Amino acid sequence: MKRLMCARIHVIFAALIIACAVTMASDTAVGDERQAGSDAPQAGKAQSETQSVPAGQKPDKPATNAIALSPSVVMTRGSAGQSVTQTLTISNSTSMPFAFEMIAQDIVVRNGKREFVRAGELPHSIAGTAVFSKPTVLVQPGTSASVDVTVTLVPDTDIRAMVAIFSGTDKLKTDRTSVGMTASLGCLITFTASNDFQLTSAGVVVHPQTETQPLKVSVELANAGTEPVIPEGVVALLSDAGKMVGKASFPAQRLLPGERLEFAAEYGAQLRPGRYRAVTSFQFEDKTLSKTAEFTVE
Rounded distance, CA 207 to CA 266, Å? Predict the structure, then answer.
């Protein structure tokens, strides 16, 4: 979106391990998501990145030997004490049934990295308020099943994300000697409760181009505010005379409060020898963060 291991292999934010088939919807691949801003839904409704498949029906275009969860990400905005209800739909295009237990976990950031914590273990736990319409679900081959989850933004909480997990109860084996494992998928739910959006940057790093590798520009961003953000960034490459000779986009990534991530953009064309400037610009909410670095192409 991954840090969940306990005799079972969990790859959260929509990942499935089943035999040799893997289906993923990573939280880092959110280039077409909209940040929960002024147009985001209020608590009581939820903005999701994909449409759900009605329970009991086959997916429109099922992937071969895969299980998929829709939506994989839900972004909400509201005030303390408000609740949101979201329908989660899991689709099974494999040849075998799968059983799941519904669980919720809070996501917190420690030392710049995400950690998953069981519901109710933290003060003001949001996952601890999660109520599922079904505690368990069985998905037959070629069908889908839906579960509603209702969560409440707890007053005085600084938690801004949780995951609703379809935790597999079937132990799978690819052959007689392999280790048993389960298939689990999770939907990330984020919460925005204020307008405290802040980003900081550690500076711009330019990795020179080679005959086999393109020019790469990287920036480490940190979320210094209290709300989740999804920065959208570009880098402009300027000649020594100030003329723009190229540009590239940074793949969007979500940053939870306190989280740090590297944003990297590659410029595929070869630059001529000379001095250049890389000017990066990240947009988030109604703010902009810009940084500049000079570099030389030999």
Answer: 9
Of 187, 121, 173, 254, the closest CA to residue 9 belongs to 173
Cα 157–Cα 228–Cα 262 angle in degrees, nearest 5: 130
Per-residue pLDDT of 232-288, as tens digits, reads 999 999 999 999 999 999 999 999 999 999 999 999 999 999 999 999 999 999 999
Q: CA 137, CA 206: separation in Å to the nearest integer?
A: 49
What's the longest Cα–Cα distance across the chain?
A: 66
User: Taking a C-beta distance cutoff of 8 angstroms, is the pair 120, 162 a contact?
Assistant: no
3-state secondary structure of 291: strand
SS3 (DSSP) at 128: helix
Residues 6+ apart with CB under 8 A from 160: 190, 191, 192, 193, 226, 227, 228, 256, 257
Among 24-33, 100-109, 213-222, the minimum mean pLDDT is found in 24-33
pTM of the predicted protein model: 0.78
Domain architecture of the chain: domains with CATH:
4-192 (2.60.40.10), 199-297 (2.60.40.2360)
